[in-house]
Write a structure and sequence with these properties.
The protein has 239 residues and is an alpha+beta fold. 33% of the residues lie in helices and 26% in strands. It contains eight helices and eleven strands. The strands form three sheets. A five-stranded antiparallel sheet has the order 2-1-5-3-4. A hairpin with a 4-residue loop joins β6 and β7 (130-133). The longest helix is centred in the middle third of the chain and has 16 residues, at 84-99.
Length: 239
């Protein structure tokens, strides 16, 4: 992925556009950051006072990620911050996680401090006790909805040893109940589609208080797309 594509995928690009339309998004405060700052023996440099002020404004717990990627599969260890004592340590673990992704690491330029959302779910999985939520990934292209999918892939959960007994039945229930509510989010996705040119994925999650939020976006080319879908670029794997 080149620099231009990374800039498009950055929250600094798509979040301000979402703020201009009538859709629910987690309250978010962005703090600038740099990887491997010259004057520090660290993986990430940022204004610690500004970060603490951002967390204080939103109130604990908060969800942290970079402008480019999260470490949600390590939710308890990294992404969920419940006290100031653990804040900066978790930021450095977040940077380490981002820099370990892919061949060259994720080229982040900010830390996003986000309002904590209690996501509706039937079970948790992965090392970080991540809620496997009522979540949808839709793909939009040039102002139109192209396709929609339940976010969670059975194969990914099957590979982790951190999952409860009966997880397959719970996943099937979550998928069925999630996709049955597509009518509630279709208009939300259309609003997003109208603001973005090109091909994008749009991720939505349902909270325990029955509200849908747009929680993430990325270029369609850089988003996992079930190979069974006719619009997936992974044609050789289509089933």
């Amino acid at each position: 992925m080149g620099l231009m594509e990374e800039e498009e995928n950055s929250m600094k690009n798509w979040l301000p556009k979402l703020r201009e339309i009538d859709v629910n998004i987690p309250e978010t405060i962005m703090v600038d950051a740099e990887k491997f700052p010259d004057d520090e023996d660290a993986m990430i440099g940022y204004d610690k006072e500004k970060l603490e002020e951002a967390v204080d404004e939103l109130g604990y717990p908060v969800f942290i990620r970079t402008d480019q990627a999260s470490a949600k599969h390590e939710m308890d260890r990294i992404s969920k911050v419940e006290s100031k004592e653990k804040l900066h340590g978790k930021v450095h673990m977040l940077a380490d996680d981002n820099l370990s992704k892919g061949l060259f690491g994720v080229q982040f330029s900010g830390i996003a401090v986000r309002e904590w959302l209690n996501i509706k779910h039937n079970f948790k999985a992965f090392p970080g006790n991540l809620p496997i939520g009522y979540e949808i990934r839709a793909f939009v292209r040039d102002g139109e909805i192209e396709c929609k999918h339940f976010y969670w892939i059975k194969d990914a959960i099957e590979k982790t040893s951190f999952k409860p007994d009966g997880w397959e039945e719970k996943l099937d229930k979550t998928k069925e109940e999630t996709m049955a509510r597509w009518d509630e989010v279709e208009n939300i996705v259309l609003k997003v589609a109208n603001e973005f040119d090109g091909w994008w994925s749009v991720d939505l999650a349902l909270t325990e208080d029955d509200e849908w939020y747009v929680i993430d976006m990325a270029r369609g080319e850089d988003s996992f797309h079930p190979p069974s879908c006719e619009y997936s670029p992974m044609e050789e794997d289509r089933i």
